[in-house]
Amino acid sequence: MSAARYATLAFSVLCSACSSASDGRESMSAPPKPSMRLAAFAFDEGVLGALPPGWKTEGTQQRGPLATWEVRAEADAPSRPNALTLTKTNHASGGTFNLCWTDRVRFEDGRVEVALRANGGEADQGGGPIWRVLDKDNYYVCRANPLENNVRVYYVVHGSRTELASADATLPSHQWHTIAVEQHGDHIVCFLNGAKLLEATDHHLPRPGGVGVWTKADAATSFDDLEVTQ
């Protein structure tokens, strides 16, 4: 075999090996995309007795004055010293949903997690996170209720709430609990204190929106450590 032909053959074999290796790499599954934190609210900055900067209070099906929300000192808050608390409902409407939220964070897919403590309420207690919030009448909410001992996830469209899934759960009042929600596309998974409780599929609110917290009727609740990742 001539030297020129040998060189040509060797080059062909090398190219074939490189192509096979490249094809093998391309067929391998891509590593999972790491999560990225969009926002974290510990409510330890700003002015006591006021809302966090960039946050607002509103009400769905509001009857009477809006509830009073404020950052206040909470000695047992998960991240001391402060938490965001609904201190006064200011109304007697059993059908009003009390919202405190921000549109400075735009959430579509990922995870929303918050700690909450039910402080009181006769008609209702507890609450939970809201996400993909377009306005006071359009959003998702996952709420825990110590009076009913359950966790439920809903969509709210045009001010009307529709249940997607429900699960029984024991969650005493005056203790801190954690609710986490993961949503990707139309698939929703909800967790209480790290345990998976609910799954649902829904397409009503596909666009990104704000995030915040929610209670119903006279439920007075404290929230801490709201974290948003994608």
Structure in words:
This protein has one domain: Jelly Rolls (Sandwich), CATH 2.60.120. 11% of the residues lie in helices and 52% in strands. The protein has 1 helix and 15 strands. It is globular and about 35 Å long. Strands 1, 3, 4, 6, 11, 12, 13 and 15 form an 8-stranded antiparallel beta sheet that branches. A 7-stranded antiparallel beta sheet has the order 2-5-14-7-8-9-10, with no helix packed on it. The N terminus is likely disordered.
Mean model confidence by pLDDT: 89
Under CATH, the topology is which?
Answer: Jelly Rolls
Top CATH class: Mainly Beta
| Beta content | over 45%
CATH architect. name: Sandwich
Report the total helices: 1
The biggest beta sheet reads: 8 strands, antiparallel
Low-confidence runs (pLDDT<50, min 5 residues)?
1-32
Write the layout of secondary structure elements.
Layout: H1 3-27, E1 37-41, E2 55-60, E3 68-73, E4 82-88, E5 97-107, E6 110-120, E7 128-135, E8 138-145, E9 150-157, E10 160-168, E11 176-184, E12 187-192, E13 195-201, E14 209-216, E15 220-229
Antiparallel strand pairs: 1-15, 2-5, 3-4, 4-15, 5-14, 6-11, 6-15, 7-8, 7-14, 8-9, 9-10, 11-12, 12-13
